[in-house]
Amino acid sequence: MPAAALFDVDGTLLDTSYWHTTAWTEALAQFGHTPAMARIHGAIGMGADQLLDHLLGEDRDHDLDAAITAAHQALFARFWPRLRAFDSAGALLRQLKQRGWTITLASSASGRDLEVMRRVLDADDAIDHATSADDVKASKPAPDLVHAALAKSGAKPGQALFVGDTPWDVQAAAQAKVACVAVLSGGFGERALRAAGALEVHRDVGDLLAHLDGSALADPAHYAALGR
Fold first, then answer.
1. pTM over 0.90
2. CB 180 within 8 A of CB 63
3. Domain identity same for 58 and 69
4. Which Gene3D superfamilies match (predicted)?
5. Domain housing 31
């Protein structure tokens, strides 16, 4: 069985969290909803299905959900030319691949947005598989994306590590019995990430790469053996 490194994309590999916050703020406002931007940011990392329940309540009228989601996608697309990968994001994926990890992207983004972000990341030579919100019934913090990523990677839960930036990533991984290495680059604090159950917390992917030898991601063969 291979050892699998499963990666969130938004806020982890790409600096997109605040663009999503802005796009959701404007999309919600178009339909008369005005939650504080700080509250919207706190829901980033969820897919649209979970985010709208979190912000607007599960008992609301769901008839406009598709329209709100479409508005968010259109508004976020305005920012595509301004998206950038975090420094060392591609280098981290390539180093992990070189060490023997199977690399799978597990993003709550739509398939369309994930395609754009992969072009920005420019590291397809190091990526083995990818899943998006389009591939599952429920997005993070539900474990569906993590289960799908595990299935594609061929790894058991104990032989995989998830890398993400939000408590929702950590919770989704935990529900799938996968440990999570977290980064602070999405705007969530270390306390929140550790409270959710993060195994490690690093400043960003560059910091993780710099301290890789002291991380759980150091040696895939050793980690896979522990998970058997």
1. yes
2. no
3. yes
4. HAD superfamily/HAD-like, Putative phosphatase, domain 2
5. 17-81
More confident residue, 62 or 39: 39
On the 0-12 / 13-18 / 19+ scale of CB atoms within 10 A, 194 is: middle
What's the total number of domains in the chain? 2
pLDDT of residue 227: 64
Instruction: Answer yes or no: do 89 and 40 share one domain.
Output: no
DSSP-derived secondary structure for the chain: ---EEEE--BTTTBS-HHHHHHHHHHHHHHTT----HHHHHHHBTB-HHHHHHHHH-TTS-GGGHHHHHHHHHHHHHTTGGG--BPTTHHHHHHHHHHHT-EEEEE-SS-HHHHHHHHHHHT-GGG--EEE-GGGSSS-TTSSHHHHHHHHHHT--GGGEEEEESSHHHHHHHHHTT-EEEEESTTS--HHHHHHHT-SEEESSHHHHHHTGGGSTTS-HHHHHHHT-
Instruction: Give the dihedral of Cα atoms 12, 16, 17, 20; nearest 10 deg.
Output: -140
Stretch 210-214: mean pLDDT? 97
- Please, what is the average pLDDT of the chain? 95
pLDDT value for 59: 86
pLDDT band at 211 (very low <50, low <70, confident <90, very high): very high
